[in-house]
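TA notes, week 10

Several of you asked for a full example with nothing omitted. So below is the full record: structure tokens for the whole chain, then the designed sequence directly under it. When grading your own attempts, check the secondary structure regions first.
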């Protein structure tokens, strides 16, 4: 999907993907695998990991999550998500199968996200929810997901703040 979207974006900017070296397209396509984590992420996850299972529930593929973890030092216990659950968020199966894979009830799982819609879908499945704003995730002109828009179980400024709220 990343490659297909890259080719669409190139066309939008008047660039013919067939005129670009395949190795350059491959490198650009794999840039997602080399994303740096938010500054609070590694410390916050490490603190949370001391008491909880840490696993991304991402629509990204497992290899992407592995590469991001290795590149950014993300201390995940497991990598879950669409490939493992065989369902994409916001489908209920994505959330419910994740809980099942971890041998937990939905109420024992907390979905931590910067997207209100993701939290709403998780909450409908019985998961606990925590909102962390990422006001520049979509650039400086972002207008959505700047504030919590639901009755989430926790709202935190960042993952370190969430860990302070949750870890005894």
């Amino acid at each position: 999907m990343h490659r297909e979207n890259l080719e669409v974006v190139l066309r939008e900017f008047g660039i013919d993907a067939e005129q670009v070296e395949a190795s350059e397209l491959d490198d650009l396509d794999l840039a997602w695998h080399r994303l740096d984590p938010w500054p609070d992420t590694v410390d916050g996850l490490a603190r949370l990991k001391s008491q909880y299972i840490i696993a991304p529930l991402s629509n990204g593929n497992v290899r992407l999550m592995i590469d991001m973890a290795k590149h950014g030092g993300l201390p995940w216990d497991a990598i879950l998500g669409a490939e493992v659950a065989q369902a994409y968020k916001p489908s209920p199966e994505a959330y419910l199968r994740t809980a099942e894979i971890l041998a937990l009830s939905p109420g024992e799982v907390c979905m931590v996200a910067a997207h209100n819609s993701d939290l709403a879908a998780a909450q409908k499945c019985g998961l606990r929810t925590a909102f962390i704003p990422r006001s520049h995730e979509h650039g400086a002109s972002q207008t959505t997901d700047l504030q919590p828009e639901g009755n989430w179980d926790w709202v935190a400024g960042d993952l370190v703040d969430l860990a302070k709220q949750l870890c005894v």
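The chain has two domains: 2-32, 35-166. Use that as a sanity check on your answer.
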